[in-house]
Amino acid sequence: MKLRIAWLVAALALAGCAGCSVQAGVGECAAQVDLGSAEVEMTEVDCSSSEAVYRVSSRERRTMCPEGDYLTESSGRSRTNGKTRLCYVLNVSEGDCLKPVNQYFSRVPCGTGVRKVSKVVDGQADRALCNGDDSRTYSQPVRTICITN
User: What is the pTM of this model?
Assistant: First the structure.
């Protein structure tokens, strides 16, 4: 009987959370919940998925992410911890193709009208490495990503 009640409680909890997003932890990958929304709302996805365009680099209990071009998402506020900010870095490799959507990117097949990751340099955060191409630099982890039009 106790096992049956436990299953019922678990089923109700899952049903009540249909459509809920799961917040990724530091080092985990994430994707935008609604590509049509201008509001950043990420959900955890497997890092091997083509949807895994972002990775959580840090969880900050302050108003700003470390220095860099982080995509940020603020989580709820608790009385003891205050507001938490998730800082996302692009989770891309050289040759990946991206489409800008609002203030974030989605990974797409390469073709006309998309942008391509031309260079990823770990250990340096320097826009000059991109020779005038669009760039994203991060201080945590230290990285430069160059994106051509």
Answer: 0.76
